[in-house]
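Hypothesis: this fold can be encoded by more than one sequence.
Test: take the structure tokens below, design a sequence, compare later.
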């Protein structure tokens, strides 16, 4: 009896200890996830690490992986994710995490292999195929010295980088000695950064002077951008606020030049002590403000966002999406006069550290960026690209020589030549004047010109570089001609013949879907898909538009107007369009997914529901300024608390699916409704549009 009692006590003690350990471990997970949600990654790591050492919870391991990434512990992240992808139960997201990390470590061949593995499991993710392509192309970017880059005379052993063109010189950021901010960084030996102006005199730059005592402070001032009339400045400032991960938070400030001095800077409305907003760049028309932020809902590190001007204020920040933003850091956005976006990133395919990339905005989307190559990019940090189109001189910054310095660049005249051509009819061989000729490289239009009365045209190009020419003239069949550099002998004039071919009108009547009233002044973009060229027109007062096009091509038609959903007609080939309906946007507008069902009263999405969500995704893709809220209800009453938990899981699944299809997380809000006697449903509600 005594032995039995001892055995019972022993077993009970073991059970109690086991339960106590399990309870403690669950507490570790709970605390770790709370810290993770608050972005307190350093504090979350020991708790999640302790829990995952004795549990197979894949989500907890993925959270730990992201903690390592956010705290720049690549070695630990690599060891963890390598074990995860070798597990037979590994999922597509694990392959993607592994590929992204390998890419950040510049192991591009290995990264390509795992991107391919991921693409087999998730073929609907279009961005991954761009990653695969970029991994292949990185070897083709060679130092062909098409541009000459040189360090300018105002660089010091402290940090300098050019941030904006201003007056007849440069606005720059510098950590040089100054009387305003006397503190010195222990790590870099820089004084706290201030904004300076340097005038260009001939080939030299004057000694930088503090731009203004109103703008410079005892804190760090950083990247800045001016409105087109130079009456407003948008700039970064760090007031010494540091989060629990040791990261300093940036804030954007705005100031107006008034009565020959700068007003007291005002804080940008979306600045926060909980995350950074910085590196502002204002578009030429003043309607778009680009900046970086690590606000919740991004893709990792710092992402690039933009706000649209609404009267005298700024609309909600919109993430540029997964074609631009990565799990790394995207920084120093610069929107040029042609609305091309340049930025620095350590998350895209590069040579090391930060590299400079370029993206163009086509058909309501930012295209996957291209690495602009040498001499701009090196195995060190390269960033802060700006360009003076009038003077054909640009600037970027790099620490390739030790400290951050400003470099001036321009085309290398020894590498330039003139491409000449002559265009004539196929029969008879007569010259054609006023033909539009586009110079294209990497699917980007670099320049355009017109033939003269003799059919002649010319472009300034780089030697030993391939180009293509797109030829366009009403009444003739459009044509693409490839240009290959000649290795020897005298360069010949290109002879191009065009075949006569009738064009036809694309025309339609644009109206309000509900009232059938004509919509005037709607913007119409007609995209020639064969040649990636766009033509534009507007609807007249009767809602009509007409544009003459080559009949031998497919077209996308994009109709947009503020206050309406953008309408996109794809792969159109001169069918008889009678009318196009636009739907007016308004707050509280809802799109109910009538066929949404959940098997076994669970939360997993059916293929039917995914199909319904695809319709919403199409609307969001065509209207990048729209934010939505996903509301979910259940008609099976399991109690208020359980109803909300179930609806939260369903809403989260819907949001995750939309994110997986390329919709930025910060464009989607979720709201669990709970019990609804009428139905279990998903309702997507328009909460904001610009």
């Amino acid at each position: 009896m005594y032995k039995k009692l001892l055995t019972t006590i022993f077993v009970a003690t073991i059970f109690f200890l086991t339960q106590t350990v399990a309870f403690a471990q669950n507490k570790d997970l709970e605390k770790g996830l709370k810290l993770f949600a608050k972005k307190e990654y350093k504090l979350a790591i020991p708790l999640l690490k302790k829990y995952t050492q004795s549990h197979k919870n894949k989500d907890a391991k993925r959270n730990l992986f992201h903690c390592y990434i956010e705290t720049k512990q690549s070695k630990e992240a690599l060891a963890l994710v390598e074990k995860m992808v070798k597990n037979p139960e590994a999922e597509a997201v694990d392959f993607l995490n592994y590929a992204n990390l390998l890419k950040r470590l510049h192991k591009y061949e290995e990264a390509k292999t795992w991107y391919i593995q991921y693409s087999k499991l998730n073929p609907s993710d279009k961005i991954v195929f761009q990653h695969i392509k970029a991994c292949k192309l990185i070897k083709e970017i060679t130092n062909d010295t098409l541009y000459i880059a040189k360090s300018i005379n105002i660089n010091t052993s402290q940090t300098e980088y050019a941030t904006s063109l201003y007056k007849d010189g440069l606005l720059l950021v510098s950590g040089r000695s100054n009387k305003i901010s006397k503190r010195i960084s222990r790590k870099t030996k820089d004084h706290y950064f201030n904004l300076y102006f340097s005038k260009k005199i001939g080939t030299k730059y004057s000694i930088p002077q503090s731009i203004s005592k109103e703008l410079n402070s005892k804190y760090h001032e950083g990247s800045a951008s001016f409105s087109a009339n130079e009456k407003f400045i948008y700039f970064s400032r760090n007031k010494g606020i540091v989060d629990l991960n040791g990261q300093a938070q940036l804030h954007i400030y705005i100031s107006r030049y008034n009565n020959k001095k700068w007003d007291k800077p005002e804080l940008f409305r979306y600045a926060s002590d909980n995350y950074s907003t910085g590196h502002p760049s204002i578009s030429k028309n003043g309607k778009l403000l680009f900046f970086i932020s690590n606000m919740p809902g991004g893709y990792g590190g710092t992402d690039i966002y933009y706000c649209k001007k609404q009267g005298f204020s700024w609309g909600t920040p919109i993430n540029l999406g997964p074609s631009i933003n990565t799990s790394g850091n995207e920084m120093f956005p610069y929107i040029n006069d042609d609305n091309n976006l340049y930025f620095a990133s350590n998350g895209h395919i590069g040579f090391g550290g930060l590299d400079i990339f370029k993206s163009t905005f086509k058909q309501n989307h930012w295209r996957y960026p291209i690495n602009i190559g040498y001499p701009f990019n090196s195995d060190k940090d390269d960033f802060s690209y700006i360009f003076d189109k009038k003077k054909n001189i640009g600037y970027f910054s790099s620490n390739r020589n030790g400290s951050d310095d400003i470099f001036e660049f321009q085309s290398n005249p020894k590498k330039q030549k003139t491409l000449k051509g002559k265009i004539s009819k196929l029969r008879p061989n007569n010259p054609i004047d006023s033909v539009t000729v586009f110079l294209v490289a990497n699917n980007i239009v670099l320049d355009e010109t017109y033939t003269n009365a003799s059919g002649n045209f010319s472009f300034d190009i780089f030697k030993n570089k391939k180009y293509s020419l797109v030829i366009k003239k009403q009444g003739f069949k459009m044509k693409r001609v490839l240009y290959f550099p000649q290795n020897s002998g005298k360069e010949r004039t290109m002879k191009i013949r065009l075949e006569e071919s009738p064009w036809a009108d694309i025309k339609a009547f644009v109206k309000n879907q509900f009232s059938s009233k004509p919509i005037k002044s709607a913007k119409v973009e007609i995209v020639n898909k064969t040649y990636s060229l766009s033509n534009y027109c507007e609807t007249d007062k009767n809602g009509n538009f007409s544009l003459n096009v080559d009949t031998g091509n497919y077209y996308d038609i994009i109709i947009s107007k503020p206050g309406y959903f953008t309408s996109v007609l794809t792969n159109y080939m001169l069918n008889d369009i009678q009318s196009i309906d636009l739907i007016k946007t308004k707050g509280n507008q809802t799109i109910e997914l009538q066929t949404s069902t959940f098997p076994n009263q669970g939360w997993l999405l059916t293929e039917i529901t995914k199909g319904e969500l695809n319709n919403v995704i199409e609307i969001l893709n065509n209207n990048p300024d729209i934010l939505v809220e996903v509301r979910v209800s259940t008609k099976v009453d399991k109690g208020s608390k359980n109803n909300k938990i179930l609806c939260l899981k369903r809403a989260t699944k819907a949001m995750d699916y939309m994110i997986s299809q390329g919709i930025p997380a910060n464009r989607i809000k979720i709201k669990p409704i709970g019990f609804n006697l009428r139905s279990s449903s998903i309702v997507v509600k328009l909460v904001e549009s610009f």
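DSSP finds nine helices and 43 strands in the chain. The chain has five domains: 25-140, 153-345, 414-498, 503-582, 590-688.
Hypothesis status: open.
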